[in-house]
Amino acid sequence: MTDRDLRVVGKPLPRTDAWEKVTGRARYTVDMALPGMLTGRVLRSPHPHARILSIDASEALAMPGVHGVLTWENVPRVLFNATSTHTQSPPPFDAVKDQYLLDNVVRYVGDEVAAVAADDDETAKRALEKIRVEYEVLPYVLTPEEAQEPEAPDLHQETEIKNIVGGVIRNGIGDIEEGFREAEVVVEETYRFPVQKQGQLETQAALAAFTEDGRYTVWCTTQTPHPTRKILSDIFGLPMSRLRVLNPPYVGGAFGVRIGLSAKAEPLALALCLLTGRPVKVMYDRKEDFTSSETRHGGTISVRLGLKRDGTFTALDVSARMNGGAYASWSADVNGAIGGRALSVYRVPNSRFAGYSVYTNTTLAGAARGFGAPQPTYSMEMTVDKAARALGMDPVEIRRKNIIRTGDAWPVPFPCLSTGLDQCLIKGAEAIGWEDRDRLREENEKGGRFRTGIGVGAGTHISSAFPFQTDYTGTQVTLTPDGTVQVVSGLMEMGTGIRTTLAQIAAEALGARFEDVWVKIGDTDSAYDIGGQASRSLYVGGMATRLAGEKVRDQVLRYAARKHEMDPDALSIRDSGIYEEDTFRLSLQEICQEADYDNVQFACLEHYKAPNALSWHAHFARVRVDTWLGTVEVEKLVAAHDMGRAINPQVVEGQIEGGAVMGLGYGLSEEVAYGPDGVQIQDSYHKYLMPTALDVGEIETILVEANEPSGPYGARGVGENSVAPVSPAVMSAISHALGVTVTQLPLQPWRLLELLDTREE
Predict the structure, then answer these.
(1) Strands (E), 36-193
(2) Is 32-138+201-253+258-292 assigned to CATH 3.90.1170.50?
(3) Span 299-465+612-760: which CATH code?
(4) What is the distance between the alpha carbons of residues 723 and 719, in angstroms, rounded to a whole number?
(5) Tens of pLDDT along 383-419?
(6) pTM metric for this prediction
């Protein structure tokens, strides 16, 4: 289908949820209330590692207005993994189940000890103070390095290798030793990464109630309603048919932190509901959200790259060690993602990856926007820059010489069907003014307080949860008797605009007007879907929507041809009207009314089992560095992205810009650190330095649309892509300005000044 044929897809149509959000009518979990609803509060551990010797809740239970207390002694003793993918993971990605809803051992400051249900929040808070807990404080470790020392405590006895989550992940192709023997130049470096918070506006929240339909219903902030229902079913032994999980309907930002049971709000609310027989709402305050919700994995990555003097890559050896925190969650999976990203951007005939995650007594690490991408993208791109300097090559040209092309061999289990990365590099370089680099270098060498640099960072990201999870979805498209279109999907809306883009796809596939399409999502009372994650919503859910819409269109045309004795081969639907050639015959409303009289329903439930397709990006940055204060001003960021077809360019640009800002924070300011007592230092937005509008310069977005055969109308994922390449582009520009190599993020002013001091020494 050509661009000329498309009527709705590819158009910057307004978001269908915009009016509700700007008027304050949009409902979130934190807004919900039910008759007789109780408030749930959680007692959290003050110790990074301890055994609970005794717990006495009698004083709390005796308080007026307190209706129940949960401890490890009266909740199901069922091990689970909070990760949604593990509800349907194929081997070798079997779940590491290492969490109980409540346990007699706590493993980080903020771990759940008990929970209460009371008439109101103040009563619940006072009740927590009445719970008496006797702890045996145990030895603890706060870094992967400490956790792997021989004398370190075993945080989970079942690990085969000391404190390693799940085992070592390995990947690669060719003969790594032969590749380095062929190399004429070898560059290597080790990089260190921070723990990053996702920074969603709505805190973790859930409301559980026994509803009139005879089910337990959980309204919550999850990104994954269907997998969350499965995990709740496993914990409580309830049939999934008696559980409903849904968004109410909106989620106030997510960025990965709401996949599965990231912070246990859902099971705690349901457990309190089961205990009290009353609706219970659990809503975390901001400090709780910071200390108990999952984070992006911090850690280290080492890269060794071999290449010929003409810049051809011959060998690549990458190793990673990530901080998994107190429980497994995504930590057994993250190194598979890291290895895939590290080895799939460049054409290297001999490559090897080995990575693992380590248990520590810190907040558990999980999914974050761009899961498994910022760390390896930074490591690879800084190493490629280092190789370019060693050979005296242009950083863009060495990348173009080695990037993956369609059909190249690579170590991921699906083919590269399309890539516009080369065009991203070409167009991005032109937009940033790449030709100014030599002039700027000469000016910088003269000295002075302010230095200007230009840099580049390239990379890729997935469009599906495959191969970590069998990724399939279902979408039902139904024509109502008045000719309007209802789309029901198991996906959810967390600010990405998926309601709008699914409506565009359905309208295009069916031939309906965009304004005639209504989309229902975020509810387990729909066809199965694994949820909003892995940049898959549009790619996977959009394809199911397109297929269902096309089949409904065919149903209508066959019926209309029979009913009105028209040539079926000459019929089409455009703008909610049926045409014979170019002649209007009747409207969708008219044909649907006729079908209703004949007991005919136009509907289709279509499933799509997704492969995967990588999206590509190249970011360029122009920075101005203050060498006296150590501050960095990003004057301009160019974000060139190949996401296949842009279903809604306006939505795509918004996603790219939002991710780019998160990437700026990752590179320059955001970091969660722990004191020697295991207490998280950055536990609020006052202490955690996220970029504001004043910190963000110009962002120019360039859309490179290389058609993806496996995606709806040629589209791939875009939601996560723009996070990873920002930090390497910015640090590449800083390196160009100052002549330093940045090996540790974030580059806060004090770190930059230390680098300058080291260089001068």
Answers:
(1) 38-44, 50-56, 66-70, 105-106, 112-118, 132-137, 169-173, 185-193
(2) yes
(3) 3.30.365.10
(4) 9
(5) 999 999 999 999 999 999 999 999 888 888 888 888 9
(6) 0.96
